[in-house]
Amino acid sequence: MSGYIFAFFFLFFIAGMIISSFKGPFPVASSADEHYTNKNYSQAAAEYEYLLDKYPTSKYADTALKKLPYSHYLASDYSKTIFYLEKAIEKGLINQNELEIKTIFADCYVQLARNLDKNGNIREAISNYLKSIEYLREIGNNFPDSNEAFIAKYKIPEYLLNTASLYRRGLLWDDAVSILNRVINDYPDSDYQLKAHAMLFGTYVNIAVSCKEKGDYDESIKNFLKVYKLPAEILDSRKYEIDALFEYFVADAPADDILKAANGLFFQERYLESMMLYDYILKNFPEHAQEITEHAVKAKINLLSHLNYKIISASEPVGSFAKSGTAKITFDNKTDYGLTLYIGGPQYNILRLEKNQRVELELLQ
């Protein structure tokens, strides 16, 4: 009797399989749709994938491919979301220019970036952040009146700052500087401005330290002095730190390297930074004074020309006479403090006058 029962159930099982095979992809599609409706997104995605694999030419295949990206997205599988979105777009089932699709792409890439960052995959994380930023930029440009564009305006500087942080961790200093300047220049009203300036300050210092460790004092000094491109309030708040760092970067540098850095900055018209180095050379390496006088005077005069000052008019001559001899000019310091005089060409000179000191300068013909 048991043998008959076994045979009956075996035949029933085989019959069920045959009937199921006669139904084809329909029950799979129906089951997948039911799972999707009931928010069992992982199961729905698995059955849509099975349908595409087993019945790629069925009438349900296109619908399955169209629903697959959403199933994976709602199941938080961001890599497969992107994969199937691109396949559906390629087949013309999904319009890549729709706002919803760009929003999904942007979110998938940033989620992948965060996961890659947690796993220490810096370069891949950077790549995904940049892709997300590009989609957010497209949303802002193509759908400027949408809520998504409003949100993108705040997300982009945040993601740029995260990207810059990753570049710094990967010691990719120049890329970090470029990204931070994008935040500063393109999003001046962003809440991330202060963070971007602080990170840029640290990046310039990191670059300078790296150069110094390699013995490249010229580049080390020039990169550190880039901090003076930052806003005055940043410089004022870190004045003592900047002064200490300046001493650190020039202290061990040979005079020739400091002179090279100073002249390089002078020709870039970065007169403030070049003047700091010229002053340092005059104080610590007076034997180089003649080499730097012309540039130092020009740098100082250029800096002072942009300040508010009162012109002291020369008095009218009381008389004149014709006679051979030497022309001289007298400077008499009758103030209560010392003065430094920067005299332009053709006779470039720098004179220091203490209180109540007088000096005569012979003028060249």
Radius of gyration: 36 Å
Task: Indicate the structural class.
Answer: mainly alpha
Number of strands: 4
Q: What is the element string, with H for helices and E for strands? A: HHHHHHHHHHHHHHHHEEEE
Outline the low-pLDDT stretches. 1-22
Q: What is the approximate shape?
A: elongated
Termini Cα gap: 134 Å
- Fraction of residues in β-strands: 5-15%
Q: Going across the biggest sheet, name each strand in turn.
A: 1-4
What is the residue-mean pLDDT, rounded to a whole number? Answer: 88
Descriptive notes:
The radius of gyration is 36 Å and the shape is elongated. Helix 8 (147-169) runs antiparallel to helix 9. The protein has 365 residues and is mostly helical. The chain contains 16 helices and 4 strands. The model is unreliable at 1-22 (pLDDT under 50).
Briefly summarize what is shown:
With 365 residues, the chain is mainly alpha-helical. Helices cover 67% and strands 5% of the residues.
How is this fold's topology laid out?
Elements: H1 2-23, H2 26-37, H3 41-54, H4 61-74, H5 78-90, H6 99-118, H7 122-142, H8 147-169, H9 173-186, H10 193-213, H11 217-224, H12 232-237, H13 239-251, H14 255-267, H15 271-284, H16 289-305, E1 328-332, E2 339-343, E3 349-353, E4 358-362
Antiparallel strand pairs: 1-4, 2-3
Helix pairs in contact: 2-3, 3-4, 4-5, 5-6, 6-7, 7-8, 8-9, 8-10, 9-10, 10-11, 11-13, 11-14, 14-15, 15-16
Main attributes of the structure:
single chain, 365 residues, mainly alpha, two-stranded antiparallel ribbon, two-stranded antiparallel sheet, 16 helices, 4 strands, 5% strand
